[in-house]
Amino acid sequence: MKIEIIPLVISLIPATLITILAIYFFKLHTSNEERRRRFLLHKDGQKQSLPLKIQAYERMVLFLERISPNNILIRTAPLNEDKKNYESLLIHTIDQEFEHNLTQQIYISDECWNTIKAAKNATIGLIRKAALKEDIDTADKMRELILTSIIDRGTPSDTAIAFIKKEISDIL
Questions:
Q1: Which of 25, 63, 81, 117 satisfies CB 3.0 to 4.6 Å to 138 for a cystine?
Q2: How does pLDDT run across 68-124, given as a tens digit for each residue?
Q3: Is 67 helix (H, G, I), strand (E, B) or coil?
């Protein structure tokens, strides 16, 4: 009886090994298929989302161009000579433009969105700084001061647009 069990056990060892190998390769194949399926779904999603991302970047460049001091000062003329009223009008216009484009943040990176917000805040800061100067007493003088200050340093929008261009080139 002992002798009959030993050949049985010996014959079961290769069968067990083959079964273990079959299970291993089946799991490997199944996981590879799952990864391939996810990749294909991701690829299809990219085809649909890429145009939306590019459109969001385009809209944000347009936003930055619109709030650039040299453009907003030309487009938004003072209603009177009061520099405080003009400051409020410019900041209100920038905030409206920003609120109009808030939803674009879901399509762009957090770093890019933070750069855009920083450019917006820097532009507002530039306007406020010019309005705080005591030797500036009219809206037209405030416009001149802002325009001359950006000639030397460039606009905050220029920096943000350069960042967007770099990010777009990485995507494409």
A1: 81
A2: 999 999 999 888 998 899 999 999 999 999 999 999 999 999 999 999 999 999 999
A3: helix
